[in-house]
Amino acid sequence: MAIFYNKIERGNPMDTQAPKKWYAVLKNVGMIGEKEVAKLVSDETTINRKEAEMALDQFEKIMVRLLLDGHSVQLGDLGSFYLTCNSEGVATKEELTATNIKNLNIRFTPGKEVKEAIQHATFKDLETLAKK
Fold first, then answer.
1. Model-level pTM?
2. In what order do the strands lie in the sheet with 21-26?
3. What are the structural domain ranges in the chain?
4. What are the residues facing 81 on neighbouring strands?
5. What are phi and psi of 116, to 5 degrees?
6. Interaxial angle between packed helices 49-68 and 34-44, expressed in degrees from 0 to 180 and rounded to the nearest 10
7. DSSP string, 22-76
8. Chain segment 104-127, per-residue pLDDT in tens
9. Does an H or E element contain 96, and which?
10. pLDDT tens by residue, 12-54
11. How far is Cα 15 from Cα 31, in angstroms, rounded to an integer?
């Protein structure tokens, strides 16, 4: 299966006089929900779909709890999840408090096998589908 992309022409917001350039933008072909993921897991294992749904639901609760307790969560070769934040800058160390934190972000760093796997991705121009 290929990853689809669109061709988008964009200008440089830092230099409005510069010529526009074309860029590839990946096309999401749809969201796969938890129930479908559970079905796929059950198809690949000996657990049934309901057990897979329950495991995914519990995993979500545990991961959120661990992240909010300040932990990073590593899932074997899949990769790791961790939190970062954006904060307002202040002049002195003493002025910096938790109220300066404006956004909390979750980040994912893929593991070695995932990084290697995505290097073998293939791409397909969406325009070629429309011409068929």
1. 0.75
2. 21-26, 3-10, 123-125
3. 31-71
4. 73, 108
5. -65, -40
6. 120
7. EEEEE----PPPHHHHHHHHHHHSSS-HHHHHHHHHHHHHHHHHHHHTT--EEET
8. 999 999 999 999 999 999 999 988
9. none
10. 889 999 999 999 999 988 999 999 999 999 999 999 999 999 9
11. 36
